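Response to reviewer comment R2.3. The reviewers asked that we include at least one raw input/output pair. We reproduce the pair for Methyltransferase here without editing.
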Amino acid sequence: MHYIPQMLNFSNNDLNNEGRLRTVFDVGCGVANFGAYLISSDIIAMSLAPNGLFELAHCSRCRIDWLQKDGLLLLELDSLLRPGGYFAYSSPKAYAQDEKDLRIWREMSALVERMCWRIAAKRDQIVIWQKPLTNDCYLERESGTCSPLCQSDDDPDATWCVLMEPCIAPYSDHDYQNSVSGLAPWPARLTSPPPRLTDFGYSSGMFEKDAVIGPIFL
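Raw output as returned:
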């Protein structure tokens, strides 16, 4: 598991990255040994709350068919990542030793390129992609690119009883101000209001008032 912070050159070779990476979504987790490993780094892993957003998603020895239905599952994963979030993918497809793996790798590479993900690091059969921080790449794509941006009336925060759509949810005005949505590193994040709260009419003053009570229940 130590390969991810090494590949991303995180400080002190720690996935926590000085508190900047706090939540991890582990896809196809098996017996959840990755989540257990992250405890020592003060990282919360495998929180499956439907409205949760994550700084990193992980799929080891990944056998999920991400290409089915025009990449619908990968697009759903994209919606779970914060701006600038990472997807660590470990699979023989990334190493492409035979023609079948090479074909799958090419198709998946083309898909994530259309989604504006970039390769942050790659080693043997491990690749780590990073989601963009802004809407710039989305807006620069050619008209008719698959997958399209979601309609403006789609609510990216709707989570219950909502059908998955093969589209990319663009960021709001406050989502991409800084790396990881402008969130403060952990544990300062507990008492620092995220910029995106203004999208919901929630002021910094309201957040600070709640924060006085909130930590008591942690």
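The first strand starts at residue 23 and ends at 26. The two ends are 28 Å apart (CA to CA). Further pairs are available on request from the corresponding author.
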